[in-house]
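> Could you send the Cyclase prediction when you get a chance?

Sure thing. Input:
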Amino acid sequence: MYQILSYPIKEGQPTWPGNPTFSLEPHTSIAGGDTANTCTIHLFNHYGTHLDGPMHFYGKGISLDQVPFKHFFFHKPLLLDIPKEPGGKLMPEDLILYREYVKDADLLLIRTGFWKYRGEKPDVYENNGPAVSSRLARYLQDNMGHLKAVALDFVSLASYSDTKDGDLAHQIMLGMYHSRYICIIEDVNMEGLPSGFLKHAAAVPLMIEGIDSSPVTMWAEY
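Output:
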């Protein structure tokens, strides 16, 4: 079975506080007498379900269009349920029970349950989300050699309440201190997915030259 993991892009969705959002501007309209319907899309590249590439937090990192295309396809995706409350941090200790499994994963999907706040309490979702600690980011770099990306069911790897550690976690994940990068997929809809290893997954960005990150169409098969 296939399942779409990207939220639909539309106006009014929660995002990192202060970031630009999204709007759709009609350009031509059949109803208005034109021969075709067209529109202009105004879209911030970190709006909705999106993938952070190496250049996002590392000035010497490669742009997203330079990332090998195979990096966006996953053949050993692993979904873990690790519940977290608002402002909670994901630590290396959270993976201890799963260490024999996570070492083989090429995509780690972490479901904290925080996705429920996206519709019910969007202000909490934006301002007080969980975070991946810099300690966990370093653990993933040092111990998960097959890992190409991490997917999260909250708005950002960082929490708005602790941006200093969040900045460091981004830098570690995206290759500032290591010879490789682990991409970050944020604001992912994991509702209804079974936990454990899935068959396949993919997160395909817009191929825009020179961009640091991009919204993605993400899906999984299980």
